[in-house]
Specification:
Rossmann fold; OB fold (Dihydrolipoamide Acetyltransferase, E2P); 7 helices
Length: about 260
């Protein structure tokens, strides 16, 4: 990958020398040259730049003004190139990668280019790592939201799977849940609150503090006063329904 590079310097000979020295590096692509701070600001705001070689003393806006106006977060990897030594401390305070004095020596520039490539490679690796973390986190959230298809239940010395779609209703039994599946009932060591949080909310509704029902198995809903009622399953089983349970059923029907 070529590194898009911008040179900003008001001296034509300085730009020419730097362009010549950078031309020997195949990974560097010079995409623009600026004669002053104003041109540098415009170029940085309109183009994706990876590396900036920036003079400090330029007409109009100096190098530090360029960084201030573009914003530290938007400035690419920056190397100051100047004929003066007195700005070195200030240059590193604005997080410049390096500080070269004119005339730039080839060996010194090669060392700087090595550091530039290391910085950009490290930044790219960090971005990749953060993107991977984001993808994994999204997958974990998605997996957590997906309702399970089966439940593993213990029965004596045996274990068996119960297809959740086959469950007609669920009854709380202290720290267990009794799963009613057709003519048989199996016990699951899990509280009804825990189980309710993992089931498909569009299929299973808690109609009572101790009862969850599979809505596909409901044949009738009966209201008995303002606070109580019951549901009749296709099997003929009648289950108690609280006022909150009735509201849960209504809320599900509206989604």
């Amino acid at each position: 990958m070529k590194l898009k590079t911008l040179i900003a310097d008001d001296e034509p000979l300085a730009r020419e020398r730097l362009r010549f020295l950078l031309g020997s590096d195949e990974e560097i692509q010079i995409v623009g040259e600026c004669r002053n701070g104003r041109e540098a600001i415009a170029a940085l705001k309109t183009n994706r730049i990876d590396v900036l070689f920036l003079d400090i003393e330029m007409p109009g806006k100096d190098g530090f003004s360029v960084i201030d106006q573009v914003g530290h977060a938007n400035i690419p990897v920056t190397v100051f190139v100047t004929a003066h030594n007195q700005y070195a401390v200030q240059a590193f305070e604005v997080r410049a990668l390096d500080y070269l004095t004119k005339p730039v020596e080839p060996e010194r520039l090669r060392a700087t280019l090595g550091r530039i490539k290391e910085r950009i490679a490290s930044h790219a690796a960090l971005l990749t790592q953060e993107q991977l973390k984001s993808v994994l986190a999204a997958l974990e959230i998605q997996s957590a939201k997906e309702a399970p298809k089966r439940l593993l239940v213990h029965c004596g010395t045996k274990e068996s799977f119960v297809t959740i779609g086959d469950i007609e209703w669920i009854e709380a039994a202290d720290y267990y849940c009794c799963l009613h599946v057709g003519p048989r009932s199996v016990m699951l060591r899990e509280t009804i609150k825990q189980l309710a949080s993992t089931l498909d909310q569009n299929k299973f509704v808690r109609i009572h503090r101790s009862i969850i029902v599979n809505v596909d198995q409901v044949r009738e809903i009966l209201r008995e006063g303002q606070s109580e009622g019951s549901v009749i399953l296709k099997s003929g089983q009648r289950l108690k329904m609280s006022k909150t349970g009735w509201q849960n059923l209504l809320a599900m029907s509206r989604t």
